[in-house]
Design goal:
By secondary structure, this protein is mainly alpha-helical. It contains eleven helices and no strands.
Length: 269
């Protein structure tokens, strides 16, 4: 039975990886079904870690399916899968796996809150990200910490804008600054540009509800720094083939946000 689970989970992982790089929805659906099969082959009672791995991978496949299709049912099931996996990846016995499930929950809950108007989900996302950060040390898991701080900053910024809460926006700003300070990925320009853009978004949100130009001026400078990073591709050809389309799409979003910040500055001239 173990061999059967191992071959099934390997197939599920391969399908999920192929689906992430393809627009073919049948790959994602096949990945979800393979994950469901793997879960039945590794019962929690007899193989708890294999069961948790199946749940986590099912959550990842469902999250991607829900994000692409706008299916909130899949997103909610993804959240439930991550929560279930976290109950097996206990904080005491597998703290980093547990933290990863918290961060994954945060990602799905942020999607539900930001794009589908489920405001309580944003608050729960913040709670999940903060829990993950308790296990990600600045020295022992710097990349995971930086990624989680970026995600927490994003969730707080959306929540702060929804509730018109300056204190929440200030928390978002602090998280975004911390993410860039902890980020070791100097050779990952897209990731760094996303973190910079996240910081600029928080600055722009604060600038919209505070008097003066200081926040907006800094937002403009940070947006421009992000664009500079996106204009300097580097790496091996295979990596660049994936990097260029993503950078092109993200560059357009950063330019749009930069334009909005410049418009606000002009209004205050």
């Amino acid at each position: 039975m173990t061999d059967t689970w191992e071959s099934t989970i390997a197939r599920a992982e391969a399908l999920r990886e192929d689906a992430a790089e393809s627009s073919d929805p049948t790959l994602l659906i096949a990945a979800v079904e393979a994950c469901r099969t793997a879960r039945t082959l590794a019962p929690r009672e007899t193989a708890p870690r294999d069961w948790a791995r199946s749940e986590a991978l099912l959550g990842t496949a469902l999250a991607l399916l829900g994000e692409r299709s706008g299916d909130t049912v899949s997103l909610r099931e993804a959240d439930a899968c991550y929560a279930a996996a976290a109950s097996a990846y206990t904080r005491e016995n597998a703290p980093l796996d547990w933290a990863r499930m918290q961060r994954n929950r945060g990602t799905v809950l942020t999607l539900l809150g930001e794009h589908y108007g489920e405001d309580p989900a944003l608050g729960l996302a913040v709670t999940c990200y903060r829990a993950a950060l308790e296990e990600y040390g600045a020295d022992t898991a710097r990349e995971d910490r930086a990624l989680t701080e970026t995600s927490l900053g994003h969730a707080l910024r959306v929540l702060g804008e929804r509730t018109n809460n300056v204190a929440t926006l200030l928390d978002a700003l602090a998280c975004c600054r911390a993410s860039l300070a902890h980020d070791p990925r100097h050779d990952a320009p897209l990731d760094r540009a996303m973190a910079q853009s996240n910081l600029a978004n928080a600055l722009a949100a604060l600038g919209a509800c505070e008097p003066g130009r200081a926040r907006l001026d800094e937002a403009v400078a940070v947006y421009r720094a992000a664009l500079d990073g996106l204009a300097q591709p580097r790496g091996d050809p295979n990596s660049l083939a994936k990097w260029v389309p993503a950078a092109t799409a993200y560059r357009a979003a950063v330019r749009f946000n930069l334009m909005l910040a410049l418009q606000r500055l002009q209004e205050r001239s």
